[in-house]
Amino acid sequence: MQTLSSLLHPYPVEKFLAENWQKQAIVISQPNKQKFQHLFSWKQLNYLLNFHQLTSPKIRFSLDGKSLPETPGENWLKNFQKGATLIINLIHELVPELAEFAAAIHSEIGHKTQINLYCSPPEQQGFDCHYDTHEVFILQIYGTKEWYIFSDTIKYPLSENRSDEQLPPDEPPYIKTVLNPGDLLYIPRGHWHYALSLDQPSLHLTLGIDCHTGIDFLNWLFDELLNQSEWRENLPIINNNNTNELQVKVEDLINNLISYTKNEDLSQKYADYLTSITPSVAKYSLPFQAGFGIFDRGFDTQFIRPKYQQVRIEHINEQEYNITFNNQKVTLKGVTLELVENIFNRDKFSLFDLATWAPDLDLEAEAVPLLTKLVMAGIIFVETDS
Q1: Distance separating alpha carbons of residues 273 and 270, to the nearest angstrom
Q2: What PANTHER family is this protein classified in (predicted)?
Q3: Location of each CATH 3.90.930 domain in the chain
């Protein structure tokens, strides 16, 4: 967990997972005020505002604890000057450094990640006291902000459990702290909180981790059961409130479900499913994915795996494998397990390497089409100098 360890440093990952994760907020301060400035800066914010066509809900504003109506670009500056907090949602989709950071955390913990940006004028409160339905890490980049953290009132809330429909706890905050540049604050989902910027503008990133839950597993299981006709069949008619046949049918379905869960390796199937839907940081590599220029360097052509890409290899028949990644599936035929493992267990290899691993593979008739297929599918990229 190299990236998570670096994020939490000097607080040990093991201690964080045992004592804080899902349980207790924590502030991690350190003297390095530039710790997070490689991820984002005022310069990058201005670039996004000046040269990207940002629209709602990607960009929005909040004032006096309430979200403002959708605002045209010519009024953004006026909003900020009036004291509104500027929010850019899913900013990792716009900034490569943040995309890689979010993907690295995802690969280490196996749960969905996203990053939002918050830019607050001095002495302002962006939002009323609320809780989030995902785990939250606050990375303070510039300025200072005072945070108030309260205990939860509902354990492990889901998106259906909205905080604006409930009251915060009637007790003092268990954390009251000022975040300085380089400081990190972790807030478990469900823990109420609010923040005030102090005497200068504040810029911070929020890393949200939307964890898979038992409810997500049941939703996946529901989709699996849709493939079985007995679960799509009509339930018995209820005649004059006589529910005997209905009860018998429901008991049959319950027994069917018990049998299905015992006979199927559902835990492995669900784990494989989660791996298969993990998105890649980079999806495009032109002109190579259009089939052009792939082998311009001949045997010196270098192939690389997209960073943090997760693949699942499934053996179908002799010398036939399914490669599942990013919710896609590619079938490879006429290849050995050794060759498949060499391709997918390395970050980088050349055409010459592949010829060495599989000397019996015909270069023009088999090796080149195989690599072309993988490149065009986006499973491997051609390395370039620029």
Answers
A1: 5
A2: BIFUNCTIONAL LYSINE-SPECIFIC DEMETHYLASE AND HISTIDYL-HYDROXYLASE (PTHR13096:SF9), MINA53 MYC INDUCED NUCLEAR ANTIGEN (PTHR13096)
A3: 288-382
Residue 368 CB neighbour total at 10 angstroms? 16
Residue in 356, 351, 355 with CA at minimum distance from that of residue 375? 351
d(CA 17, CA 33): 25
Q: Work out the pLDDT band at 136, boundaries 50, 70, 90.
A: very high
Note the pLDDT tens digit of each residue in 78-95. 999 999 999 999 999 999
The H or E element that residue 225 is part of is: helix 214-225
pLDDT single digits (tens) 39-76: 999 999 999 999 999 999 999 999 988 889 998 888 89
Which pTM was predicted? 0.91
Q: Domain spanning 288-382: which CATH class is it, in words? A: alpha beta
**E-assigned strands of the chain?**
26-28, 59-63, 66-67, 85-88, 112-120, 135-142, 145-152, 175-179, 184-187, 191-197, 202-210, 302-304, 312-317, 320-325, 328-333, 348-350, 381-382
How many CA atoms are closer than 13 Å to the CA of 347, on its beta-carbon side? 2
- Does domain 2-210 fall under CATH 2.60.120.650? My reply is yes
Q: How many residues does the chain have?
A: 386
